């Protein structure tokens, strides 16, 4: 089995622990907590915490990933990148391969239906400096599934295996797979296909136990995650509805998953990651504004001013909601024509944020970005 490694399991647990059967690594029977600060591995890549930031299309830009690492995520992931887009040297697609020094360890996720094209895309991802190549077998969106990619692969195990095999043989980096439970509601396909994908070379599996049909409705059924953990000898990451420390703890303890993945709860809310890692307290308004402005500035650098202006609009509500600012404030920001105006308005609402931002910017490592040999337009001129 390529790149796979057996995680240490029940050995650390007292014999009387109710979790001995599941073998929850790092479970402390006195505190009844799993230690999220424990490191673990995918292949030979060390992941410093048991919290993973989810790949999210239209969200997981570099600023999001760097922020995730600062707030406790041990592993971050790019959004899904089209292997066809990479093959055609599409400028926007190539831009997804821009990796900063402080993102590592980082997985870049690719999707496609053709093993050879996926292998070629994986080579490009490896050259770009990623630590892990993740394969998307979970995307439920029709535009993707109708091409035979994403969650559709779960219904075509031979193709799914061929893709994992081709990618694993094309690169030195470990390969991971992210999947849903299956296409139809109630499907258990993930339990059949998961072990096969490990045999084909997957060094880790992430399960979002909703069907593709469900999209994001209903609940993620993590009893399937527990079943999958029992079936494979590679680390399993549990994705779906991890919104608090209590939920993270209960999913880790009841499934035996190596790590939890957080998606929607972290949108405009890195403090959710900090809370899951065990820190208490809500952010001040100054902290919220400073993180938002930093996020805006970094996104402008990555996408260019024009693309960033539209892209950022959804983030205003995510950052300023949750009772942090009055609702009309977000409406006001969305209507402003330029990002300079948005910044000015934000600082007017929380003047102390300037000092917090200064500190944050001072602490950011500079330079060392992997700049591929690509046209400058990809970088928005920055
Ligand atoms: C806006 C959005 C975009 C997403 N894009 C991706 C993606 O590109 N690749 C992927 O594997 N999963 C994607 N997902 C699924 C998430 O990674 C995650 O599995 C799912 O949201 C469940 O976790 P959560 O309840 O913590 O959000 C996306 C989810 C959302 C909400």
Topology:
Elements: E1 27-28, E2 33-34, E3 40-42, E4 45-47, E5 51-53, H1 62-70, E6 76-77, E7 81-82, H2 83-87, H3 91-95, E8 106-111, H4 115-128, E9 132-137, H5 142-145, H6 157-170, E10 175-182, H7 189-200, E11 202-211, H8 222-231, E12 236-239, H9 245-255, E13 259-262, H10 270-276, H11 285-303, H12 305-320, H13 327-335, H14 339-349, H15 353-363
Parallel strand pairs: 5-13, 6-8, 7-8, 8-9, 9-10, 10-11, 11-12, 12-13
Antiparallel strand pairs: 1-2, 3-4
Helix pairs in contact: 1-11, 4-6, 6-7, 7-8, 11-12, 11-15, 12-13
Bound molecules: flavin mononucleotide.
Query: Residue-averaged pLDDT, rounded?
Result: 90
User: Regions with pLDDT < 50 over 5+ consecutive residues?
Assistant: 1-21, 370-382
Q: What is the C-alpha radius of gyration, as a whole number of Å?
A: 21 Å
- The helix/strand class is alpha/beta
> Given the structure, what is the number of helices?
15
**Main pleated-sheet profile:** 9 strands, parallel
Q: Give the CA-CA distance, first to last residue.
A: 43 Å
Q: Number of DSSP strands?
A: 13
The proportion of residues forming helix, as a percent range, comes to 40-55%
What form results from the Cα inertia axes? globular
Strand content: 5-15%
Order of helices and strands: EEEEEHEEHHEHEHHEHEHEHEHHHHHH
What binds here, in terms of ligands, is:
flavin mononucleotide
